[in-house]
Write a structure and sequence with these properties.
The complex is a heterodimer of chains A (about 210) and B (about 200). With about 210 residues, chain A is α/β, with parallel strands linked by helices. Chain A has 4 helices and 12 strands; from the N terminus they run βββααβββαββββββα. In chain B, strands 2-1-3-4-10-9-8-6 form an 8-stranded mixed sheet, with helices on both faces. The chains are: A alpha/beta (about 210), B alpha/beta (about 200). Chains A and B meet through helix 1 of A and helix 1 and helix 3 of B.
Chain lengths: ~210, ~200
């Protein structure tokens, strides 16, 4: 039985109809509950312990509702941001800065810590699709707290995915890359990301439970 | 110069596109869609309705947008349109081929059918500036003019001067999204030409 109960904000936009376009996978997400983005302040979030924010979410609104997000985190829960943040609605993360690109190799990445959801993922397969690089991430969010754990970075050390456990009583995953949950299928090692991410969620939720006890 | 307003969803790609200085200078108003009111359009000549808007908010704003066109305004609609709100709208979703340019004898599928339309004739845009990928096509009613067709039928970009007193410019292209997500250089070429045309060109 999984610990995670995931709620993902739905942008209500054209691409959300079929989860198509830029997603790696169009697999159904039975383990995820979708919530209209404008219901974040009125919906009962008490049954969820993971909130996922991706592209196409109104960040002006998220910023107006930042207390909802902070409260969610302070209940010992997890917020995942897979987007480019331009309003300070997420504790522990700075605002998005695009990567300066002089060559396609500037998009190359490397894991920055062991045993995370990138275990076994070939970094070249993550950076390139059909010979084109830059699909996974095109910039970064500055780390606010130096205790944050960077788990994926560009080869020049710029963080792409980091985890903050100090800004609130919960866990923030700030990620300037594509939606972890969609990397579930595909023909290469990147399909490991979604299942390993879900396993990581379980581990992290148990850790948070332990910290609260 | 025409006065241009644009609807703003609050999401990251729109934030970047509409606040990039070379584009922002063309907008007299950036209207945050959740607070849209019809009087926001007073004094405006052009309204851009970008792609990927929240469906409920779009459909709530649609009657005011149609009235704007009925009163002589120019309305531009970008991107896939799975919800009916454009006069005479007939949208067909098609699978997206992101990789057509890697195929042997690569063909984007675009067919320029109105090279003499001022947008192209006067040098604001060319076919290459409209070429990346598509998410579907529009099928047109009598009186609407396609500027670019797709080889398998349907229109990529059309102008409708018959459904209202104003003008509807409708395209399946979504440069507002791609430019703002730091993706696809062709979309920058498109906006570099299209916005000056909207402001100063013959429509």
């Amino acid at each position: 039985m999984s610990e995670y109960k995931i709620v993902k904000l739905d942008g209500g936009h054209a691409f959300s109809l079929e989860g198509r376009a830029m997603n790696v996978s169009n697999e159904p997400m039975d383990h995820v509950t979708f919530l209209d983005q404008y219901e974040i302040s009125t919906a009962d979030l008490s049954t969820f312990n993971v909130l996922v924010v991706t592209d196409f979410i109104d960040q002006e609104h998220l910023y107006e509702q930042k207390q909802v997000i902070e409260n969610f985190l302070n209940e010992g829960k997890i917020v995942i941001a897979n987007t480019h943040i331009f309003r300070p609605w997420l504790p522990g993360a700075g605002l998005f800065m695009p990567k300066e690109i002089k060559s396609h190799a500037d998009y190359l990445m490397e894991p920055a810590s062991e045993g995370t959801f990138y275990e076994g993922v070939d970094m070249m397969e993550l950076a390139y699709r059909k010979g084109v690089s830059g699909f996974y991430a095109r910039g970064s969010h500055p780390v606010v707290n130096k205790e944050s754990e960077v788990i994926l970075q560009y080869t020049d050390g710029t963080p792409i995915v980091f985890i903050d456990r100090t800004a609130t009583k919960g866990t923030v995953v700030a990620a300037s890359c594509r939606d972890f949950l969609t990397y579930a299928t595909g023909e290469n090692s990147t399909q490991l990301i979604a299942p390993q991410f879900l396993a990581w969620l379980d581990k992290e939720l148990l850790r948070l439970k332990g910290a609260q006890a | 110069m025409r006065k241009i307003a644009v609807l703003y969803s609050g999401h990251a790609p729109h934030f970047v596109t509409f606040n990039t200085p070379k584009y922002k200078q063309y907008f007299d108003k950036i209207i945050y869609l959740p607070r849209f009111a019809e009087q926001d359009l007073d004094g405006m000549d052009v309204l851009i309705v970008p792609s990927q808007l929240h469906n409920k908010l779009l459909l709530e704003a649609a009657p005011a947008i149609r009235r704007f066109a009925d009163n002589g305004g120019v309305v531009v609609a970008f991107g896939p349109q799975p919800w009916n709100w454009i006069p005479g709208q007939n949208w067909e979703t098609r699978p997206t081929n992101f990789w057509w340019w890697l195929e042997k004898n690569a063909d984007s599928g675009l067919r320029m059918v109105a090279p003499d339309y001022p947008l192209f004739r006067d040098g604001f845009l060319d076919e290459a500036g409209c070429t990346w990928h598509q998410h579907g096509v529009f099928h047109l009613q009598e009186g609407m003019q396609s500027l670019i067709d797709m080889k398998d039928g349907g229109s990529l970009l059309y102008v409708d001067k018959v459904s209202s007193k104003g003008t509807w410019i409708v395209t399946t292209l979504d440069p507002d999204f791609h430019f703002g997500s730091y993706f696809m250089p062709a979309t920058e070429k498109f906006l570099d030409g299209f916005l000056p045309w909207l402001a100063c060109g013959e429509i």
